[in-house]
Amino acid sequence: MNLWSLPLIAGLSLALPLVPTSAEAPGQESSSAANAFTGVGEAGFSYRWVDEDTSIAEGLQCNFYSWCAFADIVGPACPDEVLVELDYFDKDDWYVASGADVLPGSGRQKHIHVELGTNHYDGLGNIEIPNISCYLGLPTGKPDI
To answer: Closest by alpha carbon to 13, among 5, 22, 24?
Structure first.
């Protein structure tokens, strides 16, 4: 590259539009589908479920809920709280109810090993996360259902 092409390259880089991208996933150990992050909603959040081996190795257990699962969540830095919408399904994958959990945001982009669940767990078999967004409210630590 010669010095004459440098201003042209610099001018091109300034003219290109900035395209927003999703937050990078924290420290993935492998590229397997089970360890991949899934984008959700329109606010730029992604999540992945913490696998059973990691839960056992790190001693994760339900502290807030009678029935729970753990997730890693990455996305925009919310100045207040993060709203995680939840859909609950029974053991036959039939929809049971929807709820939400509010997590302290405090400007963080990574929320690692977040406990999500409910105290009304009779017959539940699965949780799905249909949406995650920034929120202004108080952290609940209690399920809606």
So the answer is: 5
